[in-house]
Amino acid sequence: MSEEACSQAWPACLAANPTLGQHRYGGRLLPSLIWRFGSHRRAISSAVSGGGLSVVRWILNAQVPSDYSRTDPAAHVAEIATASGLAGSGAGLLTACDVRSYRRASDGEVVADATVGIAQPIWAAADAPPGDYRPGTINLVVQLPVRLSEAALVNAVATAAEAKAQALWQARVPGTGTATDAVCVLCSSDGPAESFAGPRSVWGGRLARAVYAAVLAGLEA
To answer: What Pfam families does the database record attribute to this sequence (predicted)?
Structure first.
């Protein structure tokens, strides 16, 4: 969906396009994706920094090396955000996959961006296998043009996880995700609140199809 089309569809809640930034880690310059919002967005997120239910002005998805060793990721995200000129409240995600290869899909004014790494997919209910862990993360940033109730925001996270798992199944990936997947669902802070975001609700169905398409595109890249 073009920015012009978005502005026509969402006069009060324009879907932000991510911009490419850089940050330094261990003497290396690494890329990051930054979503900046013109107004506050309600959010629910499993981000390492700024996660939970919140109101945000920005989202950061920063690439880190596969041998990432910091034990204070929230503080690290804060450092990257400050160096990137991000002010106010936000949420930050980390991934070892190349964020420049993110994929975007939309459905009925819902936009999903996905960075997809599946070096070690897992079945959520399976026992942890022995041996070394290989990093692989699927990070999702989903934007809706309507306000969701708190319960619907929680429902939206579940719907996004189901759609991600369906994309993995479609691509014949042996797992429901990775051990470090993260999601951020954002919605308008204005207007009447939608009460439902399950896969058979209007907005939940759109979210599911957008997430499914974005993740599948990332898997096929």
So the answer is: CbiZ
